[in-house]
Specification:
about 190 residues; Regulatory_RecX
Length: about 190
């Protein structure tokens, strides 16, 4: 080995799981992140599986401990998938997330499809069908595209059609339909969108 190079750091061995360790891990995780029941289950079961591989602990017993813990947290209100879905959907919309991307992200976190639909239905502008428009405006503002574009020196000669196509592509990747993207991007100024 090269004299100036250090050997790679040793991988830390996983801890042996116990009900107390899982409880501490769950509370530590919930202090740092909002979570759905399914997501917390995944996090804790990874610890159970790692402990089973490293220490030979019983993964079925660890799974029972995780399920008991989740049931207790749901009863106490520490885990509430409905509140989580509403909070997450609102935050994603404020950041410019389309309803399509919000549905996908909540489903990826293991939220029940009925709760996902309730959360998306409760978004600002959902009753009037303007939820995606509000999110598209927030997205365009955050990305500084369309009417929110600030011209930078040296870009005066840029082809407006190429720039528009690039902006449309960004809106499509974010999950917005063509009509909504065009409505936002073709606005003369931000005030005309409101």
């Amino acid at each position: 080995m090269d004299e100036g190079r250090k050997p790679p750091p040793k991988r830390k061995q996983p801890r042996k799981v116990s009900p107390e360790y899982l409880e501490r891990s769950a509370l530590h995780y919930l202090e740092r992140y909002a979570s759905s029941s399914a997501n917390l289950r995944r996090v804790l079961l990874r610890k159970v599986q790692a402990s089973a591989r490293a220490h030979g602990t019983d993964p079925e017993e660890g799974t029972r401990w995780v399920e008991d813990l989740l049931a207790r947290y749901r009863r106490s209100g520490l885990l509430d998938d409905k509140a989580y879905a509403e909070m997450k959907a609102g935050g994603l919309q404020r950041r410019g997330g389309s309803t399509r991307s919000i549905r996908q992200k909540l489903a990826a976190k293991g939220v029940d499809p009925d709760l996902v639909e309730q959360a998306v239905g409760g978004l600002e502008g959902a009753e009037s069908g303007e939820a995606d428009l509000a999110a598209a405006i927030a997205y365009a503002k955050r990305r500084r595209i369309g009417p929110f574009r600030v011209e930078r020196p040296g870009r005066e000669g840029e082809d407006p059609r190429a720039r528009r196509d690039k902006d449309l592509s960004a809106m499509a990747r974010a999950g917005f339909d063509l009509d909504t993207a065009r409505r936002v991007l073709e606005a003369e100024d931000p005030e005309s969108l409101l």
